[in-house]
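User: Just a sanity check before I run the rest of the batch. Below are the structure tokens for the first item. I only need the designed sequence back.
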């Protein structure tokens, strides 16, 4: 039995055997057993619906940027992390590997030509009209999106990174030959032409008082966090961009492409039904084999006991 939970915020009571896929848009947990005592809002999908929703997510059909590719990398990373665990569920391990295989088929057969650029690529496109070769850009955060931005922008400007996790910041710094700024060093932040935030949090990363000093006239603030940094309306008038700006930039003509999306979803429904049947049959055979092996191991002991009696 597969259970897929979709939480509106991070679920803090994960068990080691849960598969977790956390992105800026959703927090998913896949498990083979029902989670008890949940004290936050969630949606739950079971078996076919669970596999269907998971496939739709990793095919980018649940994203604001339809068929975007960033989710594939996020799912791959989450899968490798899970398979590397000592405490992992056999059925889940098989399911997520098959989901990876199935999404490749769906994308290649039905979504080719409508996949969207990543958020990082669209951010570069957003900056291209005003981006100078010597622009100093500060990236806040050190996660996957931050590294995608580094890959997109490092050839055209001077990049700096600032994040809470010193270890990951150092890794990015050494890997991409960029410089780092100590986290929350506001005086250093003020010197940059462009600041790109990748951290989604309800905490106040940057206060309005910072932007009062920083000014937007000849600078730009791009907020890719979800939730976004809370700013007064006055600071959102000039050279301020958020995820909504990115979504609009990457919008596709759905009228021309709805047919492909419909066909992709239709195929996902078909695959999910067959995949769940396949997973259940595989589990049944495995349990039957294990049960038979267990009986074989016990039989000699029983014979010896009978002889002794």
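Assistant: Here's the designed sequence for the first item:
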């Amino acid at each position: 039995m597969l259970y897929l939970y979709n939480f509106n915020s991070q679920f803090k009571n994960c068990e080691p055997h849960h598969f977790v896929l956390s992105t800026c848009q959703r927090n998913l947990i896949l498990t083979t057993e029902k989670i008890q005592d949940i004290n936050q809002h969630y949606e739950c999908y079971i078996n076919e619906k669970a596999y269907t929703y998971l496939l739709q997510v990793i095919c980018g059909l649940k994203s604001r940027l339809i068929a975007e590719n960033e989710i594939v990398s996020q799912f791959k990373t989450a899968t490798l992390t899970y398979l590397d665990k000592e405490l992992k569920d056999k059925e889940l391990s098989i399911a997520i590997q098959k989901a990876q295989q199935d999404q490749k088929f769906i994308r290649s057969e039905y979504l080719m030509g409508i996949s969207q650029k990543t958020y990082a690529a669209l951010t570069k496109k957003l900056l291209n009209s005003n981006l100078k070769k010597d622009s100093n850009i500060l990236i806040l955060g050190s996660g996957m999106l931050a590294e995608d931005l580094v890959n997109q922008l490092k050839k055209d400007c001077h990049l700096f990174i600032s994040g809470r996790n010193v270890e990951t910041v150092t890794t990015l710094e050494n890997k991409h030959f960029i410089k780092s700024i100590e986290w929350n060093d506001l005086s250093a932040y003020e010197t940059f032409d462009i600041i790109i935030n990748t951290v989604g949090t309800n905490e106040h990363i940057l206060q309005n008082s910072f932007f009062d000093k920083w000014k937007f006239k000849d600078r730009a603030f791009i907020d890719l966090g979800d939730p976004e940094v809370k700013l007064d309306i006055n600071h959102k008038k000039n050279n301020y961009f958020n995820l909504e700006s990115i979504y609009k930039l990457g919008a596709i003509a759905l009228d021309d492409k709805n047919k492909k999306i419909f066909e992709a979803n239709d195929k996902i429904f078909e695959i999910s039904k067959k995949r769940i049947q396949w997973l259940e049959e595989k589990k049944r055979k495995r349990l039957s084999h294990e049960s038979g092996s267990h009986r074989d191991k016990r039989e000699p002991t029983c014979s010896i006991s009978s002889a002794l009696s």
